[in-house]
Amino acid sequence: MLPLQLIDSILINYNIGQILLLGFVLTTVGALPLKSQQLIGLNTILFGVIFLLTPVSLMPSAYLFLGLTLVVIGPIVYVTARE
């Protein structure tokens, strides 16, 4: 278990948008071995909604547009999945 001070000292240099983007990339890479396009689509939709619901005061507005893009692309990826 990591002490909270260590986690805080690492995260203090980044805004919430960068942390969420890192989480999106890590969960997408983690889901790739499962070879489930539906799971990737759901992950994309989920992080798009998270980016849209996060207050703009905590991150630059560019991440809002990223969230909007992910919400549009996620259902397309989910529907086109063959499973």
TrEMBL record:
Protein name (Swiss-Prot/TrEMBL): DUF8006 domain-containing protein
Q: Specify the DUF8006 domain's residue ranges.
A: 1-83
Cite the entry's keywords alphabetically: Membrane, Transmembrane, Transmembrane helix
Is DNA-binding one of the keywords?
Answer: no
What residues form the membrane-spanning segments? 12-32, 39-56, 62-81
